Amino acid sequence: MATMYEEVLKTTGFAESSHLITRESMEQIDSQNRNAVERKYRYSMLFKHHDGPDAIYEIGGIPQIYFKGLHQPTEEEFAHIHRFAWNRGDAPLLWVITPSEIRIYSSYSRPTSESKTDPKHLIDVLENINQQLETYHREAFDTGEFWKTEKAKRIQPRERVDGKLLSDIQGMTNQLHKKNLTTSVAHALVGQTIFLAYLRDRGLLPPYLEELTEVFKDYHRAMEAFAWLKNAFNGDLFPISANEEATIQDSHIETLRQFLLGTDMQSGQMCFWPYKFDVIPIELISSIYEMFAHDEEPEAAKARSVHYTPPFLARMMLSEAMKNLDSQAIVLDPACGSGVFLVEAFKRLAYLRGFENEQTVTADELKSLLTSQIYGIELSREAAKITAFSLYLAFLEMQSEIQTSENFQLPHLLDKTIFVGDTFDSKAQFNQVPVFKEKQFNVVIGNPPWTSWKGNQEIGIKYCQSKELPIADKKPYQAFIWRIGEDFASKNAEVCLLVHAGMFFQQSPKAIEFRQEFLNRYTLRAVINLSDLRKLAIFQKVTAPAAILFFRAQPPEDAQNITYCCPKWTSNSKVTKQLMLNADDVVAFPLSTPLQSEIIWKTAFWGTPRDYALIKKLQRFCTLDEFLQKESFEFYGQGYKKGSGSKNVPFELYGKPWLQPQQKILPYHFSSNLPSFSLRQLDWPRKREIYQGPLVVVKRGVREKSLMAAFSPSDIVYSSQYYGIVLPSKPHLYGHYLCAVLNSKLVAYFQFLTSSSWGIERDAIDPGELLRTPMRLLSDVPENLLNQVLGESQWLYENIDNSTDKEIAEHQSKLDQLIYHLYNLTRTEQELVEDTLSLTVDFFQKRDRSDALHPPSPEHLKKYASALIGVLNAYSRSIGKQFNAVVFETDKSPLRMVKLTYEKAQAEGDGVQIRKINRLDSILRKLAGNLQSEIADNLAVRRSLRIYQETDIYILQPAERRYWNPSTGRNEANRILKEHLESVL
Fewest 10 Å CB contacts: which of 96, 150, 638, 936? Predict the structure, then answer.
């Protein structure tokens, strides 16, 4: 008879999934399966631990749920199991299954008691899983539906172990500072204390040190523990000199003891259960680096853009970079920081060694890996110490048993394999090491600095100048690319770097030159654009857009394709750290594509090939800059910049109407109630002529889904958040024309798909991008059309502040239709613009509140199907055949389905029917869980499904409106034509 544990896994669908990893399956893995062996190494410690899970459910390589079965547990046992899951910090959910109930915990809720679990940790308690089968069924996790529920919202990532550990270490360090301990000694004590705690939790301390909190009650016993650590482990464990040791006092040791006891080091309240350092992932320790670096040299750290790379990104990058390598690979991180990449690379090499030898890796083999295959360069000695420290912890973690004192000896790494110095220093010690001199690195990986260098004296800039290699805006990461490609990477080495995404979107001549040279010189294999995830704060406090490069330091081949992946925000991104790709988020660029242009990277990020074609069509018109020059406009540009106020403001500007930076304004017409300009000094006042009326002023910040431009017949003073265009003559003609175009949906569409800021980093349009707006010369516009445009624009100018929203919307809609005609857009192109703004831009701006994520109605599906078969039938009717469509009506399924039938052509009609089938919901729900597949650690793709069956084609996609609209229907038709129709016709 099945136990309750087995029954729950079966009823919820987890038992039948290949993504469920159990203790038993770990013992039965195929030793020839590299991924399975790696998974065994990753999870074996968890399964061996008394409080560890019995099974783990993962998606895309990321644990989602820990399952634990118990017979008659006490409250204390519940507490211990929850504590284990919290300290591990990866799976957001813990299910503890007993014969009488199922407790579902948030694994991110911090434990507070050893004897019982706080009710706040519980998401749900079920006496029978059938109570909420739909909420907790496997399919709800596979499709992401669970993360949209109210239950899921109770899981708070801010309580996760990584954030709390960092906060407590910061609090402990601050207290040591306040007690007059120097920064370097404070960091050394913190590092050594954590190492001792790790050894305690692993059972590796000698008997007289096992009760560590008791030891730290006495100053001399604590110092004896630090001395033992130094003698037993050798290595580079935060050494403290005799003079520094003399500064350590009783109060400092007491601060360390409070941390070991579980005291909240920020508030001082002793309300939490101590950490379990044998359970906490070693990679989290590396996160100390960001804090230490800012603590030691705050200004220098900020200038170097010191930010640690989160472990989940390191895993993802290395899983791809090392997927075809063996255990002999040599790895370099030329900006290693705290060593998060090197720790993960070391672990993977150890996994591979065990896989190749089909036996457990010995301590000697691990030492050999550590001292001959893992290399790093770091400017900060404090960071280099953290790297060594993290590698030592990983070295011990990889050994399931440590029985002899010989195994305790740690190899010296600093200045042996982890070098302190400037990566661009040709005279530094590392340049003479054989692996560097002979370019023997098989993997070069890292997260080089992003913040621009301040002056021209930086050694990295001089390096680029000496090599005659371009670098835009003094960006360090670009110099690192050249240094790696020219001097470090072997011919077939995998280079994988985390860089600022602006590398692909910046539009300055130097940025374009850098892209061109990079693409000509090296083989770019793939790019993962993380820009849409920037507000998840991937780097904790940093929200700059990131991208991952995969390239080889050799010229590209003609047949080379570049894979461009653009994962988008999902409701579970912040909780699970899983990056999800949909079918349209992956593009393969042939090398012949003009990739030096920023337009193609941006259009492919948010659009499709049809969008790219429309953007190229619009670019055939003259630009706004060319329009202004041809029409003899003399003054246009940004408004003033306040700065520190180093220059006097022209007297003539005092008392003029004033547009302040955050002023709320309407399009077309400025309020008469603007304040009077009163600033006396500015850093950049600008020419006073650019404030003279009549003029049009454009706000750089984006308003909802469009730009904001307004006409003023008189003078107006504005800040650099606005762009002004002074009208030389015919003010009403030019003013109303410019406002009509710049406020239109078409221009918003163009800017969203071409701007280097909007949709990437800031909801704003840069001045240079505004000047690239397509414009139609007045002399080319038919007189009747021009009069209609001017008439609608003038009505909005005169009535926008005293009309209803409905009236304004009607006139704006008429004007948008006129602008479409102005630029000769077809009906399908107009629908493309409308769909992009109402769904894509709406999704970008509103996320989980967006209409794009709402389920499509049967009418939405019908419009999708009509557009789809419209494209297909343009081909098939020429041979007497046609496609008809059936839209299936469903209620709660995470998928929607459309069926196409290829048959003899009939009378004209829309060819779309709506039909309802019993039990279709349950069938689609089962299918939905199988549309997701892992392509790298923490990176998965959710595929759309096309099923070809004789003369029928079934299309299944997620039940979200963004997938079911006329534009996506036409895109789907293109895919069908490409992959299948040739064989049908």
Answer: 150
CATH domain 293-400+407-606 topology: Rossmann fold (3.40.50)
Q: Which amino acid is at 651?
A: F
Q: What type of residue sits at position 882?
A: Q
Mean of pLDDT values over 86-91: 95
Give the pLDDT confidence of 498-533 residue by residue, as tens digits: 999 999 999 899 999 999 999 999 999 999 999 999
Determine the pLDDT at residue 118: 82
Distance, CA of 412 to CA of 400 (rounded, Å): 22
Asked if 562 and 525 count as a contact pair (C-beta separation under 8 A), the reply is: yes
The residue among 965, 976, 979, 953 whose CA lies nearest residue 867 is 965
**Whether pLDDT at 1 is above 50:** no
Distances (CA, A) of 690 to 693, 720, 769, 851: 8, 12, 19, 41
Facing residues of 332 across strands?
A: 375, 444
DSSP 531: G
CA distances from 721 to 261, 459, 541, 754 (A): 52, 35, 25, 20
Q: Which amino acid, residue 858?
A: P
List, for residues 903-940, the tens digit of each pLDDT value.
Answer: 988 766 678 999 988 888 888 877 887 787 788 888 88
Cβ(833)–Cβ(823) below 8 Å: no
Domain 622-846 grouped into CATH 1.10.1410.40: no
User: Residue 936: phi, psi to the nearest 5?
Assistant: -165, 165
**What average pLDDT does the chain have?**
90
269 three-class SS: coil
Separation in Å, CA 550 to CA 444, 625, 715, 963: 10, 37, 53, 29
Report domain extents, the chain: 4-159, 168-280, 293-400+407-606, 622-846, 854-984
What is the spatial distance between Cα 676 and Cα 655, in angstroms, rounded to a whole number? 5
Rg of the chain taking only CA atoms, in angstroms: 31
Burial class (CB in 10 A: 0-12, 13-18, 19+), 452: middle
In tens, the pLDDT along 42-75 reads 888 899 899 999 999 998 788 999 999 999 999 9
Both tokens assigned to 694: 């009549």
Using the predicted structure, report yes or no on whether residue 41 has a pLDDT greater than 60: yes
pLDDT at 752 over 70: yes
DSSP secondary structure of 97-166: E-SS-EEEEETTSPP--SS---GGGEEEEESSGGGGHHHHSHHHHHSSGGGGSTTGGG--GGGSHHHHHH
Distance of CA 370 to CAs 265, 332, 362, 453, Å? 34, 12, 12, 33
Instruction: Compute the distance between CA of residue 292 and CA of residue 283 in angstroms, rounded to an integer.
Output: 16
Give the neighbor-by-neighbor strand order of the sheet with 722-726: 636-638, 722-726, 695-703, 706-712, 668-669
Least confident span in 359-363, 534-538, 577-581, 882-886:
534-538
Give the integer Cα–Cα distance in Å for 979 and 946. 11
Is the pLDDT at 404 greater than 50? The verdict is no
Range 202-205, long-range pairs (CB < 8 A, 24+ positions) = 202/278, 202/396, 202/402, 204/396, 204/402, 204/408
238: left (phi over 0), alpha (psi -120 to 50) or beta: left
Cα(847)–Cα(925) distance, rounded to whole angstroms? 24
Phi, psi dihedral angles at 623 (to 5 degrees): -85, 165
SS3 for 800? coil
Residue 339, both tokens: 């060593």
Confidence of residue 158 (pLDDT cuts 50, 70, 90): confident
According to DSSP, residue 513 is labeled H
On whether the CB atoms of residues 775 and 623 are closer than 8 A, the answer is yes
Q: Taking a C-beta distance cutoff of 8 angstroms, is the pair 575, 92 a contact? A: yes
